[in-house]
């Protein structure tokens, strides 16, 4: 009976065995080439191990005190940068979002606004920060401008998608009453988009704080500069303290913005 | 909304007096806070530099054009390193994040106290710290180079993939879980038959999405010494070779757009 | 065969008991329909038997083994002996029909064999036999989410029978199906239970279907058994006792109509079942 019995094996994802072999070879070949090009310097790694240990110990016993002034100053600067940049980003992204919504804007405006969004989203905050530091000099202003610019791409893209997905019937209704373009936006678009837009902005507030912690590395202000200095001086206990503060603030911001977003819905 | 009578006529206002006052106070407080923040920033700004900014900007743009295209030839190796940091980092992150997600999801976590909080803590810690900060630390420990970048990307991605994956696990259809339980399956078999098939599309989507983000992040890790295009960017900025900087920008832009396109196609294919 | 004594279930945070001191006995080969209004505790009762829902009090004994006293590992062994068919099929949608069937054997194979899908040939042979029996030959490698509702429920039934169970629990098998498919599915369950002399508890909201396919009826209301007897004792007085007031006479008329139609439809059903993809 067993010989005559129908056998069954799970059919493979790729039916053609040659393609399957080629795929495995390709993946294997890539992994070997990629790992081979890592240029791992074992001596350097072994030499660095005491530092790793030191860092782990520092995480267990962070030092908030010896550089307290700089830490407080850096955190304060990060928070102010975050708030100002988010508000500025919000204000600037509203017109961009309206322009980048296919159902509201004429073609040239649409393309222009989409281009702004694409550029703003493609570059990491830290690259933008390099440019603004070169233009505006070191300090938090460069950071604010950087974060605001990055916020435009983020908020405007999500908001534009939202506007494109909204219910068009109220628009027609307001137009039918003889409303102007501005009135259509105010009475038909704003009520539909505002709750989501507020949610997106709060989410961006989170992200801006996280980013404000790193753009200091290239001189754009915030806690990142303090952190960078701590690492440069091998003060792992201070660095650990800063990292813990960042984690806690991020968690709090996430919790708060989550709560606010839930209420807005 | 408020409806009231004034001079014997029925009138309507959007908000009644108390509501309007509250809103006004809230706005006032917010604007004050904003101005205070702005003051902090303004105090720390050298306005002479800022006044000079338009000229500086124009000068910068002038130096960036034309881009130094022959320089591209020297960028293939850094580009390969950047790609590897993102890809290997994502693969390592997947290996660690998958079990972590099962430990963190409410419906698959072992019945053992403390495991779930610890898994969640690891996810949160990894997620809150940008890969650049991880790189900063790892360059000190492992020395400069691509390896530090790979691990930095992995450390940041574990939390990201872990979080999205455990949320996907918590959202699975409980009916098939119940059905597989009813056959007498062991906990391991339950995960293999009822959970894994259901989260496969989410898993693939999340991994590819993170890979796409990692390509972006890998382009800048070199700024702190972790190899790839960022290293060249740092060198070019430091030597004020703005033609090279603009070449790098174009290359980064192209890389990011291509990886975004690939990731969008792959994600569309799995769902 | 199956003995339930004083079974009660309280869900935390609710005032009324979902099951209140339920006792019943089931002989070998007996098919019972469990009827009653929504919220009467039908699903809870069925799920207490294989302890997908943990009962608050009471004893359940299956063929001499007290299910309510088992610990995790023994409970899994006991669950292998109890097949279950679900309301919304509860297949793993992204797995193939064959994999869904083989999942019925999970209690019998180790983790690695099941992960690698290397089941004993006897299981695979059985799966092919059952696929043929439920009218799904040629569907083995189709993904479950490409099937129609009736086909999915056939897979669900085959999965339960893969376990070679001693008892079949069936939870609202027809609730997500159209009337004709519902009838075909009930007939299939009835035939299979008779063939295998398999006792079954079928939870049904459709009284005419229950009366047609199940010789014994148990009526639940508010977590208590209010009727337990052969189907011919189920008259309008009893139905009112179970469900409350309703014009039962007119429903009986509809049932007669359905029966007449069904004889015509059953010919088409055979054709439908035999069709390959």
Describe this protein's structure.
The complex is a heterotrimer of chains A (265), B (271) and C (277). Chain A is mainly alpha-helical and 265 residues long. Chain A is built from ten helices and no strands. Chain A has one domain: MetI-like fold. Chain B has two domains: 51 residues; 196 residues, MetI-like (MetI-like fold). Chain B is built from eleven helices and two strands; from the N terminus they run ββααααααααααα. A two-stranded antiparallel sheet of chain B has the order 1-2. In chain B, a hairpin with a 2-residue loop joins β1 and β2. Chain B is flat. Chain C has one domain: P-loop containing nucleotide triphosphate hydrolases (Rossmann fold, 3-Layer(aba) Sandwich), CATH 3.40.50. Chain C has a six-stranded mixed β-sheet with strand order 6-7-8-3-9-10, with helices on both faces. In chain C, strands 2-1-4-5 form a four-stranded antiparallel β-sheet, with helices on one face. The longest helix of chain C is centred in the C-terminal third of the chain and has 27 residues. The C terminus of chain C is likely disordered.
Percent range for β-strand residues of chain B: under 5%
Q: Treating each run of at least 4 consecutive H or I residues as one helix, how many helices of chain B?
A: 11
Enumerate the spans of chain B where pLDDT stays under 50 for 5 or more consecutive residues: none
Top-tier CATH class of the largest domain in chain B: Mainly Alpha
Helix content of chain B: over 70%
Radius of gyration of chain C: 19 Å
Shape estimate of chain C? globular
CATH fold group of the largest domain in chain B: MetI-like fold
Helix percent of chain C reads 40-55%
CATH third-tier fold name of chain C: Rossmann fold
The CATH architecture of chain C: 3-Layer(aba) Sandwich
Structural class of chain B: mainly alpha
Spatial order of the strands forming the largest sheet of chain B? 1-2
Major interchain interface with per-chain residue totals: A-B, 58 and 53 residues
CATH superfamily of chain C: P-loop containing nucleotide triphosphate hydrolases
């Amino acid at each position: 009976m067993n010989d005559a019995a129908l056998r069954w094996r799970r059919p493979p994802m790729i039916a053609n065995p040659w393609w399957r072999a080629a795929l495995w070879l390709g993946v294997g070949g890539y992994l070997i080439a990629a790992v081979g090009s890592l240029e791992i310097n074992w001596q350097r790694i072994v030499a660095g191990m005491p530092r790793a240990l030191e860092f782990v110990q520092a995480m267990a016993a962070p030092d908030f005190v010896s550089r307290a002034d700089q830490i407080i100053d850096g955190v304060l600067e990060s928070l102010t940068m975050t708030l100002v940049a988010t508000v500025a980003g919000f204000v600037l992204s509203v017109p961009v979002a309206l322009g980048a919504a296919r159902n509201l804007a004429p073609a040239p405006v649409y393309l222009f606004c989409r281009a702004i969004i694409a550029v703003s989203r493609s570059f990491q905050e830290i690259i933008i920060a390099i440019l603004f530091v070169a233009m505006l000099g070191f300090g938090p202003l460069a950071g604010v401008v950087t974060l605001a610019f990055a916020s435009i791409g983020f908020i405007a893209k999500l908001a534009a998608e939202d506007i494109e997905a909204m219910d068009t019937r109220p628009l027609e209704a307001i137009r039918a009453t003889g409303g102007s373009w501005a009135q259509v936006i105010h009475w038909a678009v704003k009520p539909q988009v505002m709750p989501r837009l507020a949610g997106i902005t709060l989410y961006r507030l989170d992200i801006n704080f996280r980013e404000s912690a790193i753009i200091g590395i290239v001189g754009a202000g915030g806690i990142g500069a303090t952190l960078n200095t701590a690492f440069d001086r091998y003060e792992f206990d201070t660095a650990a303290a800063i990292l813990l503060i960042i984690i806690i603030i991020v968690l709090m911001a996430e919790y708060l913005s989550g709560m606010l977003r839930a209420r807005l819905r | 909304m408020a409806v009231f009578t004034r001079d014997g006529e029925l009138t309507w206002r959007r908000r009644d007096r108390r509501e309007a006052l509250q809103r006004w106070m809230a706005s006032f407080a917010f604007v004050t806070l904003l101005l205070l923040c702005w003051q902090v920033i303004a105090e720390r700004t050298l306005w002479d530099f800022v006044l000079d900014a338009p000229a500086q900007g124009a000068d910068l743009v002038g130096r960036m054009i034309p881009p130094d295209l022959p320089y591209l030839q020297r960028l293939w190796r850094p580009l390969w390193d950047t790609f590897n940091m993102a890809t290997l980092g994502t693969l390592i992150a997947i290996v660690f994040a998958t079990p972590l997600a099962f430990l963190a999801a409410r419906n698959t976590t072992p019945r053992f106290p403390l495991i779930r909080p610890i898994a969640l803590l690891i996810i949160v810690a990894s997620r809150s710290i940008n890969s650049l900060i991880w790189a900063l630390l790892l360059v000190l420990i492992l020395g400069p180079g691509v390896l530090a970048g790979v691990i930095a990307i992995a450390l940041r991605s574990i939390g990201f993939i872990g979080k999205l994956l455990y949320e996907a696990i918590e959202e699975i259809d409980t009916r098939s879980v119940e059905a597989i339980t009813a056959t007498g399956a062991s906990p391991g078999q339950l995960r293999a038959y009822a959970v894994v098939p259901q989260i496969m599309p989410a898993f693939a989507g999340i991994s590819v999405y993170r890979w796409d983000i990692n390509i972006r992040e890998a382009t800048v890790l070199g700024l702190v010494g972790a190899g790839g295009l960022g290293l060249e960017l740092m060198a070019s900025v430091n030597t004020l070779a703005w033609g090279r900087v603009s070449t790098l920008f174009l290359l980064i832009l192209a890389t990011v757009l291509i990886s975004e396109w690939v990731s969008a196609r792959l994600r569309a294919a799995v769902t | 065969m199956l003995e339930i004594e004083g079974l009660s279930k309280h869900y935390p945070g609710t005032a009324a008991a979902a099951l209140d001191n339920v006792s019943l006995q089931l002989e070998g080969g007996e098919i019972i329909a469990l009827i009653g209004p929504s919220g009467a505790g039908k699903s809870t009762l069925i799920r207490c038997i294989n302890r997908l829902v943990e009962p608050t009090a009471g004893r359940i004994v299956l063929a001499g083994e007290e299910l309510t006293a088992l610990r995790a590992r023994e409970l899994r062994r006991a669950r292998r002996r109890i097949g279950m068919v679900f309301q919304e099929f509860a297949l793993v949608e992204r797995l193939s029909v064959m994999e869904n069937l083989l999942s019925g054997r999970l209690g019998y194979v180790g983790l690695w064999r099941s992960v690698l899908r290397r089941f004993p040939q006897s299981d695979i042979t059985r799966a092919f036999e059952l696929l043929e029996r439920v009218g799904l030959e040629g569907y083995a490698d189709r993904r479950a989410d490409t099937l129609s509702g009736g086909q999915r429920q056939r897979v669900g039934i085959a999965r339960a029978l893969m376990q070679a169970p001693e008892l079949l629990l069936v939870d609202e098998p027809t609730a997500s199906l159209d009337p004709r498919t519902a009838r075909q599915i009930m007939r299939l369950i009835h035939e299979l239970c008779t063939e295998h002399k398999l006792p079954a508890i079928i939870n049904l909201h459709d009284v005419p279907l229950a009366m047609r396919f199940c010789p014994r009826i148990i009526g639940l209301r508010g977590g208590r058994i209010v009727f337990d007897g052969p189907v011919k004792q189920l008259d309008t007085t009893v139905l009112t006792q179970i469900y409350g007031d309703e014009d039962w006479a007119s429903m009986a008329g509809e049932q007669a109509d359905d029966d007449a139609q069904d004889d015509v439809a059953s010919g088409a059903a055979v054709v439908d079942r035999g069709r390959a993809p």
